[in-house]
Write a structure and sequence with these properties.
This protein is of the alpha+beta class. The chain has 10 helices and 4 strands; from the N terminus they run ααβααβααβαβααα. The mean pLDDT is 97.
């Protein structure tokens, strides 16, 4: 198997790390993978903030709802949607940026952040390290903005924990590929049965690894999505100078 393909298809979100530091050259290569990643119209609207101080990682762990692996692992990287740089570039030639007032700018920026995150996760695993992406920083975005001293027209979209794995995680089953790969048009005729089968598979998975508290997929996503998941996101975006086309 091609090693690159293997990295992507063997993904696991690790949540058990040692405190061993990460080699500086390895971290440089990991960051370079995101630095050279594509961005919409070469906007380069992504910035990374690397948190290595224990005090900073402990604060981020609390902001994210109490996730101890953030504090334990040696490196946390926050991926920032960054339209501050482009605004400064336009000001240098006496032009004013207004793109941040649209939902499109948020979608485009979040897409570029996702591309950068994928590159970092793959690169970190190629270095023999474990990772877990963290959306929980959006639980209190203003706290993250204050902690990282982010300027206007920036937003902390997601983070990732990187470190040496202590106790390896188990790879979770996925919904059938037929729910993911669609030819020509979206295919939903058998979706109900696919979900039913997957619910049973997930419960069996949890039992097989000794997790008797494991839920079905329907129960798991309901725990998050029957509510507005992170209700402080919009107000933080507006405070940072982003708009919603109104």
């Amino acid at each position: 198997m091609n090693p690159v393909f293997d990295i992507f298809t063997s993904h696991k979100s690790e949540r058990s790390f040692t405190e061993q530091s990460i080699d500086e050259a390895a971290l440089g290569r990991i960051v370079a993978s995101a630095y050279r990643a594509p961005t919409s119209v070469n906007s380069q609207q992504v910035s990374l903030v690397i948190s290595r101080k224990a005090e900073s990682r402990e604060k981020i762990a609390a902001i994210a709802g109490g996730q101890p692996w953030i504090a334990k692992a040696p490196v946390f990287i926050t991926f920032v949607l960054d339209m501050h740089k482009s605004g400064q570039a336009m000001a240098a030639i006496d032009k004013q940026q207004i793109a941040q007032q649209s939902i499109e700018s948020i979608v485009s920026g979040a897409t570029d952040v996702g591309i950068a995150l994928g590159a970092v996760m793959a690169a970190a695993r190629a270095e023999g390290l474990g990772i877990v992406p963290i959306g929980g920083i959006r639980r209190d975005p203003e706290a993250m903005i204050d902690l990282l001293k982010l300027p206007a027209h920036t937003f902390p979209v997601v983070g990732v924990v990187i470190g040496h794995v202590d106790v390896p995680a188990h790879q979770k089953p996925r919904l059938p590929v037929a729910t993911f790969r669609h030819e020509e048009t979206y295919q939903s005729a058998d979706l109900e049965q696919h979900i039913s089968d997957y619910n049973q598979e997930m419960v069996a998975h949890w039992q097989n690894i000794g997790r008797n508290d494991g839920e079905s997929w329907s129960e798991s996503v309901s725990g998050y999505y029957q509510n507005i998941y992170f209700p402080k996101v919009l107000s933080a975006l507006l405070k940072q100078g982003f708009g919603n086309d109104k």
